[in-house]
What does this fold into?
Amino acid sequence: MAAAGGGWPAVCEKFRAARTLSAVESLKDPETEPYRSKYSARALLQEVKQLLSAAEEGGEAVVAVRRAVLEYELGVNHTDTEELSAGEEHLQRCTQLLEPHRLSPDCVSLYIQAQNNLGILWSQRDEIETAQTYLETAEALYNQYMKEDGNPPLDPSEHFMAEEEKLTDQERSKRFEKAYTHTLYYLAQVYQHLDMIEKAAQYCHTTLKRQLEYCGYYPVEWARNAATLSQYYLSKECFMEARHCLAAASVIFSQAGQVPSTEDADETEPDQQDLPERKAEIARCWIKYCLNLLQSARKLLEDNIGELDPDRQLELKAQRKKEEDEKEKGRKKAVLFGTSDICDSVLAMEEKVSSIYPLDFQEAREVFLVGQNYVQEAKEFFQVDGYVTDHIEIVQDHSALFKVLAFFEEDYERRCKMHKRRIDMLEPIYADLNPQYYLLICRQLQCELADTYYEMMDLKVAIGNRLEKLDSHTVKKINSLAQFAIKYYELFLDSLRNPDKVFPEKLEEDVLRPAMVAKFHIARLYGKLITSDSKKQLENMQTSLEYYTFLVDYCEKYPDAVPAIETELELSKEMVNLLPASMERLRAKVSSFV
Amino acid sequence: MDSHKAAHTTDPWFSGLEMVNGLWEELLGCKAGPGPEDSHGKTLLGDIETARFTLLSSLIRPQLAKEKIEGCHICTSVTPGEPQVFLGKDKAFTFDYVFNIDSQQEEIYVQCIEKLIEGCFEGYNATVFAYGQLYNEEILDLFDTTRDIDAKNKKSNIKIHEDSAGGIYTVGVTTRTVTGESEMMQCLKLGALSRTTASTQMNVQSSRSHAIFTIHLCQTRVCPAFNADNATDNRIISESSEMNEYETLTAKFHFVDLAGSERLKRTGATGERAKEGISINCGLLALGNVISALGDKSKKATHVPYRDSKLTRLLQDSLGGNSQTLMIACVSPSDRDFMETLNTLKYANRARNIKNKVMVNQDRASQQINALRSEIARLQMELMEYKTGKRIIDEEGVESINDMFHENAMLQTENNNLRVRIKAMQETIDALRARITQLMSDQANQVLARTGEGNEEISNMIHNYIKEIEDL
It folds into this structure.
């Protein structure tokens, strides 16, 4: 204790003051002197360094570690104040000092933190690969230490503490694990930058898992993150993982406002007031889960014209029995969240909806119903009045749920009723919407309504074909459905007109295909209208021809449009060739009457 | 700014240029930050994905006195006559417009802004963005000077409200009615001042915020002689007693100054939050941003709770559709800022390619196309039948199969039968002929055998002769 200026306790005091300046005081620095506290902290650290070289207390190893701690603090300080090169030097020196002892409980935590900071530093220089090397070194060291020793190591700050102040094993472990959690989190970002998305997702997942294990989370934020991660898994069609994330999100969310289980237990979670909104957001993620699961199942089951293929169905059912989710169990282990009590609740939550592809109507209906419940929950918060866009998105999802459920329904009449439900939910919101403010949404709705009417008409035609003779009721129904479909396609096309009500010469790329498909569908619908009046029929054929001709002419004029509507164009060309002859004959028939 | 005065336009209502001046000043103090590829998930790109930038321009500001003093070199150049900017020697970027260091305000106004303003007078919304990077999303009312400074951690009570008929508006924000240019300029200055004080007093939070200056334009004018069906949804026609038709036209013009990371640096916001702007986020606070960036944003199949920002919601009626959007990417010419400039230009270039959401769902079309295919096949068959005359339409207009066609068919069948018979007869003839040859040869052989010693040679010769004769 022979060091100048008050001995070891004074050194420790200076060190502590430097850390406070850096972490706490610096936040209050004025805009004009943003780094004031950081610079003061640096000066203090330099002083401590001076004192340390004068001190002779402790063995060589102890002094080396203390020096390493100072180099580390100085390195971070320089990095924070945008002096990267100096920061790098200090951090490298820290690493060198620790290298021989990096696996000892005295050094391992500091070494990992130094590597973390070198990773951050190199990422600031846009050299992500270098950052990756440092962070992966930290990761490997953690694993090696846990394998070989595993006892809670010292926190770097303890090297400047009196014996009696030293931390408990529990606290040490917490800080060590936190440093490692940061390593994983930085790695997640590094992988993302390197476009290794799968790995990035895996590290995000692990980060979430560790937050839960070490109680370092805000329930609402954690739940939102887990729900968001589930959406990544959805895009990869990993439904088991997606469901697990969502179930965990729901369970953890229900903790919100109960126990402050955060690592910084002094403050409760900031955005408590948004709880209903957050809850509704999670519900929306669930809706997407149900929808994606059903849609993916449809993709597996449909034949080349989009109908359920019974052979595929049998095949998949047999396959499912064989597999017996052996593989899933292995995968499950890797992603499982939480300690046993949380885990039990999560598993119970998962029971409510399947994560395997529904293969028949009954199974599909169960998933659909869960999705529909979440639709109601989400709509409770996202009401039209106040949240028009969100509300409509949810209704559109609801409509999509019905649409995919209809695929599984064999009975045409009932299928038709499901589409009617879609019309019933979409039409009123469309009617209320002001296109000046919600043009894009209006267009989406116009197209969806038109498609749905079209689909219903097709179904009615199919039902009619099964009858001996088309009765007038069915004919009327078919015609009115076709008229509605035409109406909405026309509304969509009208929305593309310029302020002078002129349809654009050349369509913008983003509306090209929708507009062409609308024209094509209208052409077809006019061809489908049933009438006993030949004149009327001739008129309809003429209109149909005009729409087909539009497609053909447009593509002749703008050949770059062709790839977007290849099939439609090919068919339109055929129709343009065939229709005039048919009309000629019809005309012959009509004229012979006169 | 010398161009300030010279740039006044004749527009009595307001000068768009003044607005640009405001932006310009902001931009001078805050050149655009690094592109989103270097930051976290909450990027501008993700936030205004529904926008399609019909106009995109790049603006190179003059060097600041400070930069000149510090000996910074200019590292940008503009290709003459082309909207193209070079950064260094080999990095070229093309925009709709490029304005170099020596560009005057008026140029920018005439080329970019004027048509947006004209559109506004016709009832179409417009938005001008000055590019920066997105951070905090607290909404503050810059007209509200009574703000409680101590309440910096409290949330402001301004809410964005969407209404299906009335559009998007903010609840709790001061709206001032202005009747002329000077009044509006006063408002803008007031707002800018309030923003400055807000950023010093409220520390980190607001210094990283965007500023939106929205002009609601409302016109009532005598209806031009439109046809009845010419009335659009945004024209509310009312008839006065004199039978003169008036229409009310509304439009919004947003000026958006997006917060830049430069400001973050200048203010030296430190600690955990500050590092969110840097390539690797230090605090776990931004984990959500990282996760939300994992997914494919172009897909609408998933819901990402982070994605829809308040800014997007506030501006959605002015993004996409018939409204015009202009994005100004302002960059520094100094070599010191090379990387940031590069990132800004890269970002702006990407913004150019932002597409509207896909609207038409095509997954059922296969069936419909299939149905049409069979219809075409049927029509082709029919056409063929007419061409061969199988089908005709008689005087009463009744479609029927032609009598001639029947007759023809009958004759053809008969013909075929006859052909078969001829073939059969031919075969009989051939067979008989062979038989005759054989018999004749046998007969000759017998004659020879009787007359001579049955000379084999002669017999063969005679056989051949006979065959030859037959063939002939």
The longest strand of chain B covers residues 245-257.
